[in-house]
């Protein structure tokens, strides 16, 4: 381990270092991040981009009195290294180790747990108002990326916080725009003048100079860039922020450490909401990441020297979803694909290239994406909104109002449904089955295998009326017994039909159930598996099959309360079922670990199922 | 009935009228609206404000080819009168009659069903893209109010639609800003020049003139005005909209019919997204409403001559909530109240006057409101977010992330929980129990009476850890049996403890259950009522009490699937309950009617309960 970082046990230790030492520290931090992420996977490019910014923040401000709120939180690794967690840093995203996101339960330095985008200004403003009301000391700083500004919540936050009568700092960490040398010169000039309170009154004198700063740089290359550019062109002129009630300062070079320190020192003295526009380079200091910041945004473990991932590629549910949608769209010009800033993650890259007119990246704007899909559908198009389960939570009201009530055909490709693993409690896709289950008229498919996904997508578009969600897990398809013959319909039965005990489950838990079934068979406990493919509505045949058993176990990779299992039990008991029924789902937020470890902790792996069933069958 | 309106069977009939006749028609429409709303209740001020705008839109555009999307939809009465529904207009908001909002199922002229704010730009843009892709003809126009622009979704819509390469019209119906005579002059001048495509290139010549238009008028009187003003000051200068990709034209006097017609005719010819800023007066043409537009925003039936409501005032759940919160805040300086533009509706007017520093109106920004509350709570404040059940759907993700995962104390005062009645399917509060039920760690109280609400609020703030929702119905407390003695705890039992049959219910359905119980007793069917006050978690004693019965009926004024009843049944059967259990909740969207009529249709009134129970007990 490197020398300086070894002696940083709290941010106060930064105050002892001189500028050269701080710069050496930044270099050590970058090494530590690259080293650890290459082993554990994680968010690389965004963390490398804000090393100097974080060091400057920690050097200038005195948290935890001064509260820093990280938007999304996937840029908080430097923050963790500097706040007493450097020794645990190699455990990041591992079971029992540090979270990959700020977490109030992990450290007093983590002001607000994050994970979803665009919340920081709202949370920080709440903290600032609380401090003002209760007379608590300290500055409040929200650090938000340019991508997060495409989410409407960020505007709501700005609109509300702008009326605050005290110091309140929003740092716009803009990692898309590069500063040309000439702009850098005027920026440094303005940085010095404009952040010194004494010079504020002279502001009007430099307005002319400001006019010469180009606000948009680089070619406009794809739709998300267009979306971001649109926002950028609006926001990055001081008028916008100043009209919202903020003083605007910038742009500053976020990798110029002495300048950042000076800027932040001055910012803390202004008795007003201020916005500091800081320009950083995603992936800074690791050439592969600098060149391909999108690829290195979130990564699996990789070889540092080559930049190549350790795991071999191959199909996964997202890629199968994407290629299936391309085949369907080839034949049907009504099909459109919508994503909220997750083109690569949801497997839509090929679609976006082949059908650019029918591809819509909305930015991080799930609410708009759902309602926009409803609008498309109202005119007879066939919109498919591909979205991670955890982010679809943002569109709950819009699914109800702008899809279900309209009685239109919108298909939701709900990616990363169920446990996602290392990203932890903020990202687990454990709510979608339950919240979609509350909405009248929506059909929900939950395939376990690629061929099921393909069939389900086809049925969603052409067979089933109204809105349909097709939800599938992160990663590749699981174990499949050679003798499993799927019907492609709403449910399948697998195993001895005369067994007195049944497992009912859906999605990839079927694979675990199959493994459990085999082990139980060897123990002399025959079990039939009733595999739900359509989890809303539930086929009567599936309920009847369970009702004929003496004992029924329902395993669910999602919230138990309000989930599919409770509804299944209701249907089961409505059939005058007289046996025993057990429900085993998720009862609480699920912390980070590998997906397999999470399922094990939850008792939803094969061993857990075996244990649950043998215990109950003994009694 | 008046003469001209009697001959308008479709918008095409408007094209036969000359300007004088159109103005006569506007006057007739106003009479019809005032007359009908005085009888049926409804949205008065917003509808009176956009009569000329709607007549102009219908005169110029040829729907349904030209699609008009009304934001929120509570300003669509004129639209309904002009689109073949004048004869049914007296039935508006009545059972079986017209909906008070645009409704795709009601008329081909209703492009998109609405009810919640800030969705129109997103929906309209989806419609516009669909038309472009499929080659369908017609303009697309979104009509959005200034209040709706405080919702982040509107920005998401603007940010996405701004990149459209074709005609797309957003009409900002601004009913807060009054045009002074001098501004009106320049506005008319600009209206003529700027909306004529031929003059567009001369735009720069009039920029100087534009600088003289004051963008903020009138005194800043309260926090919602501040929020709106903030947005207005940002938006109403052309820079903002033009940076978002829109051409900005305005402000125009929305009551100047010939000008509106000319402006709209020109707007339709521009090959680009454009924003027309139209200024209207809420309540226009009815003096009481003009003077007090907030009071006449949504009204019950009233006397036209005096403007006074027919029903006498008195306590309701909102007022009891508000006064209780005031008493508590008097003694505890940590208590804050938050509302998303519903200060009056949620009973917070007194609070806002007495504790202005601890009162926060966020505008129509439920997402921000939840996260802001989480921020306040993280610093030890006691935020209480008062919000209608239906609008809290917007904050589902934020409740999970920014409250539940943070493990902070936020209290949700969930007003209008359950059936609301006349506002219909978009406003029924039938989802909150189910979606809150999915969130780990949240406690939910569902009082039936004022004294329970008071106790529950106190428990929510001081006894129960973590987030708590206290949900209560619209209106006044229902029938209360004289011998009902509440314990003030999680559940109560009422009626013969030795009865073999139980009704389990919560909230105001308890009153209906009591009436049913009495009638059933007379029929020789004794029933005990198990009344849940805390519906999450459910007290074991309540489940045990039900488990001792032979037959259990669960009645629920909320979604059945994923609801409290299914969870109760799961708990019941986990106790090896061997009897019969029946669940009776809501299975579909509930159309408009009085709340009593809705409950009757749903079988959730006393008669419905009696019928369900006698039918089942006969079998």
Automatic annotation (TrEMBL), chains A, B:
Coiled coil keyword on record: no
Binding site for Mg(2+): 146, 175
All residue ranges annotated as the Transketolase-like pyrimidine-binding domain in the record: 315-479
Pathway: Metabolic intermediate biosynthesis; 1-deoxy-D-xylulose 5-phosphate biosynthesis; 1-deoxy-D-xylulose 5-phosphate from D-glyceraldehyde 3-phosphate and pyruvate: step 1/1
Keywords: Isoprene biosynthesis, Magnesium, Metal-binding, Thiamine biosynthesis, Thiamine pyrophosphate, Transferase
InterPro entries assigned: Dxylulose-5-P_synthase, THDP-binding, Transketo_C/PFOR_II, Transketolase-like_Pyr-bd, Transketolase_BS, Transketolase_C, Transketolase_CS
Reactions catalysed: D-glyceraldehyde 3-phosphate + pyruvate + H(+) = 1-deoxy-D-xylulose 5-phosphate + CO2
One Pfam family here: Transketolase_C
CDD domains to which the protein is assigned, alphabetical: TPP_DXS, TPP_PYR_DXS_TK_like
Residues that hold thiamine diphosphate according to the record: 74, 115-117, 147-148, 175, 286, 366
Cofactor: thiamine diphosphate; Mg(2+)
Gene3D superfamilies: 3.40.50.920, 3.40.50.970
Annotated cofactor note: Binds 1 thiamine pyrophosphate per subunit. Binds 1 Mg(2+) ion per subunit.
Gene Ontology MF: a single term: 1-deoxy-D-xylulose-5-phosphate synthase activity
Enzyme class, UniProt record, top EC level: transferase
Its biological purpose: Catalyzes the acyloin condensation reaction between C atoms 2 and 3 of pyruvate and glyceraldehyde 3-phosphate to yield 1-deoxy-D-xylulose-5-phosphate (DXP).
Family: Belongs to the transketolase family. DXPS subfamily.
Quaternary structure (record): Homodimer.
Protein name (Swiss-Prot/TrEMBL): 1-deoxy-D-xylulose-5-phosphate synthase
Species of provenance: Caproicibacterium lactatifermentans
Gene of this entry: dxs
């Amino acid at each position: 381990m490197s020398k300086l970082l070894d002696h940083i046990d709290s941010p106060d230790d930064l105050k002892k270092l001189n500028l050269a030492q701080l710069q050496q520290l930044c270099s050590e931090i970058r090494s530590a991040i690259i080293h650890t992420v290459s082993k554990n996977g994680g968010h690389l490019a965004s963390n490398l981009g804000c090393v100097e910014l974080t060091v400057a923040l920690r050097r200038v401000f005195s948290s935890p009195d001064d509260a820093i709120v990280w938007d999304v939180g996937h840029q908080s690794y430097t923050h963790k290294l500097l706040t007493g967690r450097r020794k645990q840093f190699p455990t990041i995203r591992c079971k029992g180790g540090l979270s990959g996101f700020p977490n109030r339960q992990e450290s007093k330095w983590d002001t607000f747990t994050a994970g979803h985008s665009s919340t920081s200004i709202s949370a920080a403003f709440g903290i600032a108002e609380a401090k003002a009301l209760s007379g608590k000391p300290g500055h409040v700083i929200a650090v938000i990326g340019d991508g997060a500004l495409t989410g409407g919540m960020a505007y709501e936050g700005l609109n509300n916080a702008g009326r605050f009568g005290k110091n309140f700092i929003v740092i716009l960490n803009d990692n898309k725009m590069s500063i040309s040398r000439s702009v850098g010169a005027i920026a440094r000039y303005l940085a010095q003048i404009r952040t010194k309170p004494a010079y504020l009154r002279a502001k009007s004198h430099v307005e002319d100079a400001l006019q010469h700063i180009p606000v948009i740089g680089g070619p406009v290359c794809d739709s998300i860039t267009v979306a971001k550019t649109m926002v950028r062109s609006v926001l990055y002129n001081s008028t916008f922020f100043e009209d919202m009630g903020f003083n605007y300062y910038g742009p500053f070079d976020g990798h110029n450490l002495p300048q950042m320190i000076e800027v932040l020192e001055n910012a803390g003295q202004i008795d007003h909401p201020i916005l500091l526009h800081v320009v950083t380079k995603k992936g800074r200091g690791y050439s592969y990441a600098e060149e391909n910041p999108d690829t290195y945004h979130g990564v699996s473990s990789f070889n540092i020297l080559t930049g190549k991932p350790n795991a071999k590629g191959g199909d996964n549910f997202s890629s199968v979803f994407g290629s299936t949608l391309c085949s369907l769209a080839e034949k049907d010009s009504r099909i459109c694909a919508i994503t909220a800033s997750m083109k690569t993650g949801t497997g839509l890259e090929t679609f976006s290239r082949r059908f650019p007119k029918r591809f819509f990246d909305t930015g991080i704007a799930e609410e708009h994406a759902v309602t926009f899909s409803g609008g498309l559908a109202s005119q007879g198009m066939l919109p498919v909104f591909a979205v991670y389960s955890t982010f679809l939570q943002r569109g709950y009201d819009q699914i109800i109002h702008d899809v279900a009530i309209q009685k239109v055909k919108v298909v939701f490709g709900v990616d990363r449904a169920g446990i996602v693993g290392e990203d932890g409690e903020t990202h687990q896709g454990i709510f979608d089955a339950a919240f979609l289950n509350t909405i009248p008229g929506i059909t929900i498919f939950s395939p376990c295998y690629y061929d099921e996904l393909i069939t389900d997508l086809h049925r969603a578009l052409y067979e089933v009326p109204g809105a349909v969600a097709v939800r599938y897990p992160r990663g590749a398809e699981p174990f499949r017994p050679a003798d499993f013959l799927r019907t492609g319909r709403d449910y399948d039965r697998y195993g001895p039909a005369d067994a007195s005990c049944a497992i009912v489950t859906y999605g990839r838990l079927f694979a675990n159930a199959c493994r459990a079934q085999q082990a139980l068979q060897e123990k002399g406990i025959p079990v039939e598996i009733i595999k739900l493919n359509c989890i809303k509505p539930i086929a009567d045949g599936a309920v009847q099959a369970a009702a004929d058993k003496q004992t029924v176990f329902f395993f669910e990779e999602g919230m138990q309360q309000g989930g599919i299992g409770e509804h299944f039990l209701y249907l089961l008991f409505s059939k005058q079922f007289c046996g025993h029924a057990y429900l085993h789902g998720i009862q609480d937020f699920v912390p980070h670990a590998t997906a397999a470890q999470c399922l094990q902790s939850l008792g939803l792996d094969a061993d857990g199922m075996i244990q649950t069933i043998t215990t109950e069958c003994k009694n």
